[in-house]
Automatic annotation (TrEMBL):
Residues 1-18 form the signal peptide. It comes from Podarcis muralis (Wall lizard). The lineage of its organism: Eukaryota, Metazoa, Chordata, Craniata, Vertebrata. InterPro entries: C-type_lectin-like, C-type_lectin-like/link_sf, C-type_lectin_CS, CLec_Tetranectin-domain, Collagen, CTDL_fold. This is Pulmonary surfactant-associated protein D-like. Residues 99-126 form a coiled coil. The keyword Endoplasmic reticulum does not apply. Residues 41-95 are annotated as: Disordered.
Amino acid sequence: MQHHVLCILVLGVSSVRMSDPEQCNCEEKVPACMVIPGSNGLPGIPGSNGLPGRDGKEGPQGEKGEQGLRGMQGPPGKAGPPGLKGESGQKGDCGGKELELLKTQISDLQGELKALQLTASKTQKAILGYIFSNSTRVGGKLFVTNGDDGDYETSKATCNHFGGQVASPRNENENTAALKLSAKMGRKVFFGMNDQETEGIFKHLNGETMEYSNWAPKEPNGVEEDCIELYPDGKWNDISCNVARLIMCEF
Ligand SMILES: [Ca+2]
Ligand SMILES: [Ca+2]
């Protein structure tokens, strides 16, 4: 009986202290009261929660899910083994005939091209001969002068500009024709041949060696004279390429 009274007092004091946050230590006194429930009708203090129970049994298998999204393309696989060598084919008769036909056509075209070039060349010379009164025709060649003077390089550039080259006689008739035009103009002219590449060996502008020449006595005689001028008597003299002479071209 004394024990019950003590507990009631203690509970009263505890409830008072619970309202005071600064002195809350009633938890330590609760176990002393756990012996009270059921003895005298006074309500007991609720116990604390028990431990979690054991895991339940495994449930039934779920239904099959929907198909997932398609994954990314993987890296290319290794190259397969080489295939078997094929059998050699038969020679095509048709291809051979076509080739021969093409060759014939190309040959025909080349012939027509040459004919056209010849016609164009004749036309060009006819036009030049008509435009330039100072011209002389000999065989298939046309010597033309515009009346200007210039050194050798200027003569070459001028003639190349019009599609020709510096006058280069290859026989006596051409030399005579060039002399005739030179005499008409009353001035000496340069020829195209020179020994600029190898001293003493005069060559044509296309690199060919000279088969015809008409040197004056004791000519050529100049180590520093690599060009050719035409004397009034038709003879040739090697002379410096830097002097000025009448520009005469051939077409
Ligand atoms: Ca020389
Ligand atoms: Ca000379």
